[in-house]
Amino acid sequence: MSNFIPEIIYAIVFIVGNLTVYFWRRKTDDPDIFFFCCIWSLASLFVYLAAIEIPKGSFFVVIPLLFLGLFLQSYFRSKARLLNGFLFNLFIIVFGGYLLYNIFTTTSIIVGGLLAVVLVAFLLIVFFGIAALLIFLYWNAIVVMKKESHSLANLLTLLLAIFLTVYLVYDHFIAQQLPLWLSGFLSCLPLIMGYFFLVFFNFLTISLLYQFNHPRYDQDYVMVLGAGLLNGEKVTPLLARRIDAAIHFYQAQQKAKGKRAKLLMSGGQGPDEKISEAQAMKNYALSQGIPESDILLENQSTTTLENMRFSKKIMEEHSPNGYKAIFSSNNYHIFRAGIFANQAGLAADGIGAKTAFYYLPNAFLREFVAIVMMNKRRHLLVVGGIVGLTTAATLIRLLVN
């Protein structure tokens, strides 16, 4: 029994700590219970790992902590950067390597349990990953086509599913039948796919982490980023959710601190719209009981980058001595919007409005495509390098044979 004393103490500290965090955060204006429980769980785990390793004379627990510190330093310096996704995933890989070392040197049942969960998840992905992914993508595509318009932007999950299906058929039934020179050249395809998978994984990681952003209740402005209108004059359900998220923050800040922020509606008038998006958003906010004196309009922008630039100009005119601001958009969009805020020189983070689950896969794919296009030169160089290397390798094989 004495051999399990560290594990018993850790289990007690873990459970009691999380219960304490739960009841503590419930009493606050902005509970965010899940985030703070994650912080406590990670901190208590590292304390436990250090407690069982250091007495044995090693200090390798410092290594994953350094990588975690590197991620946190980059993240809090600027949250909307793809680099942060890479650094977090790098931390996870290093931490996994450390856990493997730890299990062999300490035989901890806690570490063994963590690795068992990871192993089971890995095996499930290996055995069912591709098939499950294809089934999910086709199902999601059908749902989106039933509930949304058939625009190209809403067909991304279907296009991805078709591409993966064609590639699997090629890889299993056609690749072996091709001449050496052609199969060698086409060997660049899995490498290119692997590269974009890593880029997407980093993007998805930081996009999900960005959802935990919870601005303080001391904001002067809450920007709402515009979107298309119904019949050229009414906000869509998607845009209404953005406004609702801003109104919720506006009301929560007023209740918590007694400070009233200005809602800055940002969006110009499209060629098929009767009024500007900003005006339609104002009309909706007024219908929700927001005083007109607390609403500002930016009605010239046509892109998210212009949303940020033109809104920044308005806020600087109203608050020449400085201000604090955040922006509201749909949860899948706030990371890319944060990138545009950085490009505009605007120190503002985003709050995300909830989006229907069925729409999220397609929405995140659309955001990923947009992110790739923002850095298309870099990706073209990498793809070109892969094609060049595989072509050179194929030529060498042909000459040798």
From TrEMBL:
The chain crosses the membrane at residues 6-24, 33-51, 57-76, 83-104, 110-139, 151-170, 182-210, 380-400. Residues 220-368 form the DUF218 domain. Keywords: Membrane, Transmembrane, Transmembrane helix. It comes from the Bacteria. It holds the Pfam family DUF218. InterPro entries: Cell_Envelope_Assoc, DUF218, Rossmann-like_a/b/a_fold. Gene3D superfamilies: HUPs. This is DUF218 domain-containing protein.
